[in-house]
Amino acid sequence: MSLSQEIEITEMIKAKAFELGFDLCGVAPVRKLEEHEPVFQKWVSEGMNGQMSYLARDTEKRTDPSLIFPGAKSVIVTGLNYYTDKRQEVRGVPLISKYAYGDDYHDVIINKLDKILDFIVSKIPNVKGKSCVDSSPILEKAWAREAGLGLAGRHSVIINREIGSFFFIGILLVNTELEYDNPFSGDYCTGCRICIESCPTEAINENRTIDTRKCISYYTIEHKGEIPENITVKMGNRIFGCDICQDVCPWNRKAKQHKITEFDLSPVFSRMKTDDWMSLTEEQFNLIFKRSSVKRRKYVTVMQNLKVIRKA
Questions:
Q1: Is 134 a catalytic residue?
Q2: φ, ψ at 36 (rounded to 5°)
Q3: Is the pLDDT confidence value at 253 over 70?
Q4: Of 85, 103, 134, 276, which one is the catalytic site residue?
């Protein structure tokens, strides 16, 4: 394609992304992110990935998208706001992270990315692509910066000036050249340490990474086995995820309500009382959370987390 065609199709891709409900969309050229290798390797070698051994595999793929999708030339990076000011209605009940209030974001975003790919193919018939949302070994946060969406805050989550940090990142690799955005430059966290100081388990490292061995979110979602007592006494009522570091972030003070109906807080779940949680059967659990990310944690483990916060 000529330069003018690349610019035109890129503008059309972004317009399509916004039409599908994405709040952010940027594009970067495929390259090997060599500068991220030392930090990632050190993080893994020090065991900060906890039991998530899969993070220690395919390390070369994580920094080189062309190994994930051979022939890839462009990385289309999307951001989808999931912030809501709605909350579980009953005070003192077991808490679920905001990102899991509605439908599983993997399903929602993959569906939208695939529609963008279909749109691109309709304009450039020979184009092929691959949609990625967490399931592929790709450094999503690094690519968000490469595509100009923002920069990882001290809490390690990407911050965007317009919508804060409560958004999901989706990536579409395509084998065609496009018009590219400038990588984000600057820092939104200069002089601010609120998230570090607010983390009850001191899980936030100084280099904008997380020591999962101290992270409440990790223990309530990924960890297998008994949760250490030094974590349980600081979990509060959290049984699936933790939003503390993002809740206190100044860039989220003006966060706006998402516009994706699939992320709406389930009325049944929002009204559950503590007794409802404690008497929850597996059948009820599967029905209430059948479309939620919570289902990935399984009924037995969620009930174990409930017992932990009741004892703490």
A1: yes
A2: -90, -15
A3: yes
A4: 134
